[in-house]
Amino acid sequence: MTIQSCVTIINEWDIVAARQLGRNVAKELGFGTVDQARITTAISELARNIYLYAGKGQICIDKLYENGKPGVKISAIDSGPGISDIRQVMEDGFSTSGGLGAGLPGVKRLMDQFAIESIPGDGTQIIATKWLR
Amino acid sequence: MNKLIFKFIETHKLDILDEWIRTTKEAADDRVLRVVSDQVFNSTSREFVDLVISNLNGSKDDYNSRLNEFSEKVVRLGWPLTFVSRGLHTFGVIVLDRMEQSGVITEENQRNLFREFSEWMQPMNNEIIDIYSATWEKTVSLQKIALQELSAPLIPVFERITVMPLVGTIDTERAKQIMENLLKGAVKHRSEVVLIDITGVPVVDTMVAHHIIQAADAVRLIGAKCMLCGIRPEIAQTIVSLGIDLNQFTTKNSLQKGIEAALELTNRKIVNVEVAK
Protein backbone atom coordinates (compact mmCIF):
# COMPACT_ATOMS: atom_id res chain seq x y z
CA MET A 1 0.00 0.00 0.00
CA THR A 2 1.37 3.41 -0.90
CA ILE A 3 0.09 6.93 -0.52
CA GLN A 4 1.89 9.41 -2.71
CA SER A 5 2.14 13.14 -3.03
CA CYS A 6 4.56 15.16 -5.09
CA VAL A 7 6.14 18.60 -5.22
CA THR A 8 7.50 20.05 -8.44
CA ILE A 9 10.89 21.68 -7.94
CA ILE A 10 11.47 24.78 -10.04
CA ASN A 11 12.79 27.43 -7.66
CA GLU A 12 14.48 27.56 -4.30
CA TRP A 13 11.24 27.89 -2.37
CA ASP A 14 9.95 24.61 -3.74
CA ILE A 15 12.74 22.94 -1.78
CA VAL A 16 11.13 24.28 1.39
CA ALA A 17 7.74 22.99 0.25
CA ALA A 18 9.11 19.50 -0.45
CA ARG A 19 10.86 19.45 2.90
CA GLN A 20 7.69 20.52 4.71
CA LEU A 21 5.72 17.76 3.01
CA GLY A 22 8.33 15.19 4.02
CA ARG A 23 8.39 16.38 7.59
CA ASN A 24 4.61 16.16 7.85
CA VAL A 25 4.52 12.63 6.43
CA ALA A 26 7.34 11.53 8.75
CA LYS A 27 5.55 13.04 11.71
CA GLU A 28 2.29 11.30 10.77
CA LEU A 29 4.05 7.95 10.59
CA GLY A 30 5.48 8.45 14.06
CA PHE A 31 9.15 9.05 13.30
CA GLY A 32 11.10 10.66 16.15
CA THR A 33 12.65 14.11 15.89
CA VAL A 34 16.07 12.75 14.94
CA ASP A 35 14.69 10.66 12.07
CA GLN A 36 12.44 13.55 11.05
CA ALA A 37 15.53 15.73 10.78
CA ARG A 38 17.30 12.99 8.78
CA ILE A 39 14.40 12.64 6.36
CA THR A 40 13.94 16.39 5.86
CA THR A 41 17.66 16.88 5.37
CA ALA A 42 17.75 14.09 2.78
CA ILE A 43 14.82 15.67 0.94
CA SER A 44 16.55 19.02 1.11
CA GLU A 45 19.71 17.59 -0.48
CA LEU A 46 17.85 15.79 -3.25
CA ALA A 47 15.61 18.76 -4.00
CA ARG A 48 18.58 21.10 -4.08
CA ASN A 49 20.36 18.79 -6.52
CA ILE A 50 17.34 18.99 -8.81
CA TYR A 51 17.26 22.79 -8.50
CA LEU A 52 21.00 23.19 -9.06
CA TYR A 53 21.73 20.63 -11.74
CA ALA A 54 18.52 19.67 -13.53
CA GLY A 55 16.59 22.93 -13.22
CA LYS A 56 13.28 21.16 -12.95
CA GLY A 57 12.06 17.92 -11.49
CA GLN A 58 9.87 16.29 -8.95
CA ILE A 59 10.12 15.09 -5.38
CA CYS A 60 7.55 12.49 -4.39
CA ILE A 61 6.97 11.30 -0.86
CA ASP A 62 5.35 7.89 -0.35
CA LYS A 63 4.12 6.19 2.73
CA LEU A 64 5.15 2.56 2.55
CA TYR A 65 3.96 -0.45 4.50
CA GLU A 66 6.01 -3.63 4.37
CA ASN A 67 5.09 -6.51 6.66
CA GLY A 68 3.15 -3.99 8.72
CA LYS A 69 6.20 -1.82 9.14
CA PRO A 70 5.75 1.76 7.96
CA GLY A 71 8.35 3.71 6.06
CA VAL A 72 8.92 6.83 3.99
CA LYS A 73 10.05 6.62 0.41
CA ILE A 74 11.54 9.69 -1.26
CA SER A 75 11.71 9.68 -5.03
CA ALA A 76 13.62 12.42 -6.80
CA ILE A 77 13.01 12.36 -10.53
CA ASP A 78 14.33 14.78 -13.11
CA SER A 79 15.03 14.83 -16.81
CA GLY A 80 18.18 16.91 -16.52
CA PRO A 81 21.64 16.28 -17.95
CA GLY A 82 22.12 13.06 -15.95
CA ILE A 83 25.25 11.82 -14.19
CA SER A 84 27.96 10.20 -16.26
CA ASP A 85 29.99 8.70 -13.41
CA ILE A 86 27.80 7.62 -10.53
CA ARG A 87 30.74 6.14 -8.60
CA GLN A 88 32.33 9.56 -8.56
CA VAL A 89 29.30 11.47 -7.24
CA MET A 90 28.91 8.91 -4.46
CA GLU A 91 32.40 9.78 -3.22
CA ASP A 92 32.68 12.21 -0.34
CA GLY A 93 34.01 15.58 -1.37
CA PHE A 94 33.20 15.45 -5.05
CA SER A 95 31.30 18.48 -6.30
CA THR A 96 31.00 20.25 -9.62
CA SER A 97 29.43 23.37 -8.12
CA GLY A 98 32.00 24.24 -5.47
CA GLY A 99 29.85 22.83 -2.67
CA LEU A 100 30.92 20.46 0.07
CA GLY A 101 30.26 17.40 -2.05
CA ALA A 102 28.59 15.61 0.83
CA GLY A 103 25.07 15.62 -0.63
CA LEU A 104 24.50 12.24 -2.26
CA PRO A 105 26.79 10.11 -0.06
CA GLY A 106 25.22 11.97 2.87
CA VAL A 107 21.71 11.07 1.78
CA LYS A 108 22.78 7.44 1.50
CA ARG A 109 23.99 7.52 5.10
CA LEU A 110 20.91 9.38 6.33
CA MET A 111 18.48 6.86 4.86
CA ASP A 112 18.16 3.04 5.12
CA GLN A 113 17.91 2.22 1.42
CA PHE A 114 19.28 4.16 -1.50
CA ALA A 115 19.11 3.56 -5.24
CA ILE A 116 20.33 5.78 -8.02
CA GLU A 117 19.80 5.43 -11.74
CA SER A 118 20.96 7.92 -14.29
CA ILE A 119 21.22 8.08 -18.04
CA PRO A 120 23.43 10.90 -19.32
CA GLY A 121 21.32 13.29 -21.34
CA ASP A 122 18.12 11.72 -20.19
CA GLY A 123 17.75 12.30 -16.47
CA THR A 124 18.24 10.94 -13.01
CA GLN A 125 16.09 8.98 -10.64
CA ILE A 126 16.95 8.55 -6.99
CA ILE A 127 14.89 6.53 -4.56
CA ALA A 128 15.67 6.56 -0.86
CA THR A 129 13.72 4.87 1.90
CA LYS A 130 13.68 5.11 5.66
CA TRP A 131 11.91 2.52 7.82
CA LEU A 132 10.36 3.17 11.19
CA ARG A 133 12.21 1.19 13.78
CA MET B 1 -24.22 51.76 -32.23
CA ASN B 2 -22.89 52.14 -28.76
CA LYS B 3 -26.04 53.98 -27.88
CA LEU B 4 -28.05 50.94 -28.86
CA ILE B 5 -26.26 48.74 -26.36
CA PHE B 6 -26.30 51.41 -23.73
CA LYS B 7 -30.01 52.08 -24.09
CA PHE B 8 -30.75 48.39 -23.92
CA ILE B 9 -28.73 47.91 -20.74
CA GLU B 10 -30.19 51.03 -19.17
CA THR B 11 -33.78 49.95 -19.70
CA HIS B 12 -33.23 46.34 -18.67
CA LYS B 13 -30.85 47.14 -15.86
CA LEU B 14 -32.82 45.54 -13.06
CA ASP B 15 -33.59 42.35 -14.94
CA ILE B 16 -29.98 41.99 -15.97
CA LEU B 17 -28.83 42.62 -12.44
CA ASP B 18 -31.20 40.00 -11.07
CA GLU B 19 -30.13 37.38 -13.54
CA TRP B 20 -26.50 38.25 -13.09
CA ILE B 21 -26.65 37.94 -9.32
CA ARG B 22 -28.43 34.61 -9.67
CA THR B 23 -25.96 33.08 -12.14
CA THR B 24 -22.93 34.45 -10.38
CA LYS B 25 -24.05 33.13 -7.05
CA GLU B 26 -24.54 29.69 -8.53
CA ALA B 27 -21.09 29.81 -10.03
CA ALA B 28 -19.45 31.22 -6.92
CA ASP B 29 -17.56 28.67 -4.87
CA ASP B 30 -17.58 28.41 -1.11
CA ARG B 31 -14.47 30.49 -0.89
CA VAL B 32 -16.36 33.59 -2.00
CA LEU B 33 -19.58 32.97 -0.14
CA ARG B 34 -17.77 32.22 3.08
CA VAL B 35 -16.03 35.58 3.18
CA VAL B 36 -18.97 37.77 2.20
CA SER B 37 -22.50 38.03 3.52
CA ASP B 38 -25.55 38.04 1.23
CA GLN B 39 -26.06 41.73 1.77
CA VAL B 40 -22.51 42.63 0.91
CA PHE B 41 -22.67 40.33 -2.08
CA ASN B 42 -25.84 41.96 -3.40
CA SER B 43 -24.73 45.53 -2.83
CA THR B 44 -21.32 44.87 -4.33
CA SER B 45 -22.92 43.21 -7.31
CA ARG B 46 -25.17 46.23 -7.81
CA GLU B 47 -22.16 48.48 -7.59
CA PHE B 48 -20.42 46.30 -10.12
CA VAL B 49 -23.24 46.55 -12.64
CA ASP B 50 -23.56 50.30 -12.00
CA LEU B 51 -19.88 50.57 -12.66
CA VAL B 52 -20.14 48.61 -15.88
CA ILE B 53 -22.94 50.88 -17.03
CA SER B 54 -21.20 54.08 -15.99
CA ASN B 55 -18.44 53.04 -18.32
CA LEU B 56 -20.92 53.64 -21.12
CA ASN B 57 -22.03 57.16 -20.36
CA GLY B 58 -19.80 58.58 -17.63
CA SER B 59 -16.68 60.58 -18.24
CA LYS B 60 -13.38 58.68 -18.49
CA ASP B 61 -11.90 60.13 -15.28
CA ASP B 62 -14.98 59.46 -13.28
CA TYR B 63 -15.08 55.90 -14.53
CA ASN B 64 -11.43 55.25 -13.81
CA SER B 65 -11.63 56.43 -10.23
CA ARG B 66 -14.75 54.37 -9.66
CA LEU B 67 -13.16 51.31 -11.18
CA ASN B 68 -10.16 51.79 -8.94
CA GLU B 69 -12.33 52.12 -5.89
CA PHE B 70 -14.34 49.08 -6.83
CA SER B 71 -11.33 46.87 -7.50
CA GLU B 72 -9.74 47.87 -4.23
CA LYS B 73 -12.95 47.00 -2.46
CA VAL B 74 -13.15 43.62 -4.13
CA VAL B 75 -9.54 42.89 -3.29
CA ARG B 76 -10.22 43.85 0.30
CA LEU B 77 -13.25 41.56 0.38
CA GLY B 78 -10.98 38.77 -0.81
CA TRP B 79 -12.85 37.89 -3.97
CA PRO B 80 -10.73 35.71 -6.21
CA LEU B 81 -9.74 37.26 -9.52
CA THR B 82 -11.24 34.41 -11.52
CA PHE B 83 -14.56 35.07 -9.85
CA VAL B 84 -14.56 38.75 -10.79
CA SER B 85 -13.38 38.21 -14.33
CA ARG B 86 -15.85 35.38 -14.82
CA GLY B 87 -18.52 37.72 -13.45
CA LEU B 88 -17.66 40.26 -16.09
CA HIS B 89 -17.87 37.59 -18.73
CA THR B 90 -21.23 36.39 -17.41
CA PHE B 91 -22.50 39.94 -17.58
CA GLY B 92 -21.56 40.13 -21.24
CA VAL B 93 -23.21 36.82 -21.99
CA ILE B 94 -26.45 37.87 -20.27
CA VAL B 95 -26.63 41.19 -22.09
CA LEU B 96 -25.95 39.63 -25.47
CA ASP B 97 -28.44 36.82 -24.86
CA ARG B 98 -31.14 39.28 -23.90
CA MET B 99 -30.43 41.53 -26.81
CA GLU B 100 -30.69 38.60 -29.14
CA GLN B 101 -33.95 37.48 -27.58
CA SER B 102 -35.55 40.88 -27.85
CA GLY B 103 -34.46 41.24 -31.43
CA VAL B 104 -32.09 44.17 -31.01
CA ILE B 105 -29.41 42.16 -32.71
CA THR B 106 -30.16 41.62 -36.35
CA GLU B 107 -28.37 39.84 -39.15
CA GLU B 108 -26.87 43.06 -40.50
CA ASN B 109 -25.65 44.69 -37.33
CA GLN B 110 -24.49 41.65 -35.35
CA ARG B 111 -20.88 41.77 -36.53
CA ASN B 112 -20.44 45.40 -35.65
CA LEU B 113 -22.37 45.04 -32.46
CA PHE B 114 -20.29 42.12 -31.24
CA ARG B 115 -17.09 43.92 -32.07
CA GLU B 116 -18.11 47.08 -30.31
CA PHE B 117 -19.32 45.13 -27.36
CA SER B 118 -16.06 43.28 -26.89
CA GLU B 119 -14.11 46.49 -27.44
CA TRP B 120 -16.10 47.97 -24.60
CA MET B 121 -15.71 44.98 -22.25
CA GLN B 122 -12.04 44.22 -22.86
CA PRO B 123 -10.48 47.36 -21.31
CA MET B 124 -12.59 46.81 -18.22
CA ASN B 125 -11.30 43.29 -17.89
CA ASN B 126 -7.71 44.41 -18.39
CA GLU B 127 -8.08 47.20 -15.88
CA ILE B 128 -9.37 44.86 -13.20
CA ILE B 129 -6.55 42.37 -13.81
CA ASP B 130 -4.05 45.25 -13.71
CA ILE B 131 -5.29 46.47 -10.38
CA TYR B 132 -5.34 42.97 -8.95
CA SER B 133 -1.79 42.19 -10.02
CA ALA B 134 -0.60 45.59 -8.81
CA THR B 135 -2.03 44.82 -5.38
CA TRP B 136 -0.29 41.47 -5.30
CA GLU B 137 2.99 42.88 -6.48
CA LYS B 138 2.80 45.49 -3.77
CA THR B 139 2.12 42.87 -1.12
CA VAL B 140 4.96 40.67 -2.31
CA SER B 141 7.47 43.50 -2.43
CA LEU B 142 6.43 44.69 1.03
CA GLN B 143 6.83 41.19 2.41
CA LYS B 144 10.19 40.88 0.73
CA ILE B 145 11.33 44.04 2.48
CA ALA B 146 9.90 42.82 5.77
CA LEU B 147 11.71 39.51 5.31
CA GLN B 148 14.97 41.26 4.53
CA GLU B 149 14.66 43.32 7.66
CA LEU B 150 14.60 40.27 9.86
CA SER B 151 16.94 38.20 7.81
CA ALA B 152 20.38 38.59 9.38
CA PRO B 153 20.72 40.97 12.32
CA LEU B 154 24.00 41.28 14.17
CA ILE B 155 23.72 42.12 17.84
CA PRO B 156 26.62 43.35 19.97
CA VAL B 157 26.03 41.78 23.40
CA PHE B 158 29.26 42.62 25.18
CA GLU B 159 32.27 44.62 24.23
CA ARG B 160 34.09 42.65 21.50
CA ILE B 161 31.39 39.94 21.45
CA THR B 162 28.58 39.92 18.88
CA VAL B 163 25.79 37.48 18.17
CA MET B 164 23.98 36.68 14.94
CA PRO B 165 20.81 34.73 15.64
CA LEU B 166 19.49 32.93 12.57
CA VAL B 167 15.83 32.02 12.33
CA GLY B 168 14.15 30.18 9.48
CA THR B 169 15.20 28.81 6.13
CA ILE B 170 18.50 29.93 4.66
CA ASP B 171 18.51 30.34 0.89
CA THR B 172 21.26 31.69 -1.35
CA GLU B 173 19.99 35.26 -1.09
CA ARG B 174 19.98 35.14 2.70
CA ALA B 175 23.32 33.40 2.84
CA LYS B 176 24.81 36.34 0.98
CA GLN B 177 23.30 38.79 3.45
CA ILE B 178 24.51 36.76 6.41
CA MET B 179 28.05 36.90 5.09
CA GLU B 180 27.87 40.64 4.38
CA ASN B 181 26.27 41.63 7.67
CA LEU B 182 28.60 39.37 9.61
CA LEU B 183 31.74 40.88 8.15
CA LYS B 184 30.54 44.47 8.17
CA GLY B 185 29.23 44.16 11.72
CA ALA B 186 32.28 42.38 13.07
CA VAL B 187 34.49 45.18 11.81
CA LYS B 188 32.15 47.92 12.99
CA HIS B 189 31.73 46.53 16.50
CA ARG B 190 35.41 45.57 16.71
CA SER B 191 34.37 42.03 17.56
CA GLU B 192 36.85 39.45 18.70
CA VAL B 193 34.29 36.69 18.96
CA VAL B 194 31.26 36.30 16.70
CA LEU B 195 28.58 33.80 17.70
CA ILE B 196 26.26 32.38 15.06
CA ASP B 197 23.17 30.91 16.68
CA ILE B 198 21.26 28.36 14.57
CA THR B 199 18.62 27.34 17.12
CA GLY B 200 15.91 28.64 14.78
CA VAL B 201 17.19 27.04 11.57
CA PRO B 202 14.93 24.06 10.84
CA VAL B 203 17.20 22.11 8.49
CA VAL B 204 20.98 22.16 8.22
CA ASP B 205 21.89 20.53 4.94
CA THR B 206 25.19 20.66 3.08
CA MET B 207 24.29 23.99 1.45
CA VAL B 208 23.54 25.71 4.76
CA ALA B 209 26.64 24.17 6.34
CA HIS B 210 28.73 25.26 3.39
CA HIS B 211 27.57 28.86 3.73
CA ILE B 212 28.21 28.86 7.48
CA ILE B 213 31.70 27.43 7.00
CA GLN B 214 32.46 30.07 4.37
CA ALA B 215 31.17 32.84 6.64
CA ALA B 216 33.29 31.53 9.52
CA ASP B 217 36.37 31.38 7.28
CA ALA B 218 35.82 34.97 6.23
CA VAL B 219 35.36 36.07 9.84
CA ARG B 220 38.64 34.40 10.71
CA LEU B 221 40.35 36.34 7.94
CA ILE B 222 39.34 39.65 9.47
CA GLY B 223 40.83 38.56 12.76
CA ALA B 224 37.84 37.41 14.77
CA LYS B 225 36.84 34.01 16.03
CA CYS B 226 33.60 32.39 14.98
CA MET B 227 31.55 30.12 17.21
CA LEU B 228 28.53 28.07 16.22
CA CYS B 229 25.80 27.81 18.87
CA GLY B 230 22.39 26.28 19.16
CA ILE B 231 23.14 22.92 17.57
CA ARG B 232 20.23 20.72 18.55
CA PRO B 233 20.88 17.00 19.09
CA GLU B 234 19.06 15.96 15.91
CA ILE B 235 20.99 18.53 13.88
CA ALA B 236 24.24 17.23 15.37
CA GLN B 237 23.34 13.71 14.21
CA THR B 238 22.46 14.76 10.67
CA ILE B 239 25.66 16.79 10.40
CA VAL B 240 27.64 13.69 11.38
CA SER B 241 25.71 11.50 8.92
CA LEU B 242 26.28 13.98 6.14
CA GLY B 243 29.96 13.90 6.97
CA ILE B 244 30.31 17.66 7.30
CA ASP B 245 33.56 18.70 8.89
CA LEU B 246 33.02 21.43 11.49
CA ASN B 247 36.35 20.86 13.25
CA GLN B 248 37.48 24.32 12.25
CA PHE B 249 35.31 26.08 14.75
CA THR B 250 34.08 25.76 18.29
CA THR B 251 30.50 24.60 18.58
CA LYS B 252 28.16 24.87 21.56
CA ASN B 253 24.68 23.57 22.07
CA SER B 254 23.25 26.79 23.45
CA LEU B 255 23.82 30.50 23.08
CA GLN B 256 24.36 30.76 26.82
CA LYS B 257 27.29 28.34 26.69
CA GLY B 258 28.59 30.17 23.66
CA ILE B 259 28.60 33.52 25.43
CA GLU B 260 30.31 32.03 28.48
CA ALA B 261 33.01 30.61 26.24
CA ALA B 262 33.32 33.89 24.38
CA LEU B 263 33.81 35.78 27.64
CA GLU B 264 36.46 33.30 28.65
CA LEU B 265 38.25 33.82 25.35
CA THR B 266 38.30 37.56 25.95
CA ASN B 267 39.52 37.02 29.54
CA ARG B 268 36.33 37.99 31.32
CA LYS B 269 33.66 36.27 33.35
CA ILE B 270 30.31 36.97 34.91
CA VAL B 271 30.34 37.05 38.71
CA ASN B 272 27.64 37.38 41.31
CA VAL B 273 27.87 40.55 43.33
CA GLU B 274 27.12 40.60 47.01
CA VAL B 275 24.50 43.14 47.79
CA ALA B 276 25.21 45.19 50.92
CA LYS B 277 22.27 45.14 53.25
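The beta strands of chain B are 155-158, 161-167, 193-200, 225-229, 250-251.
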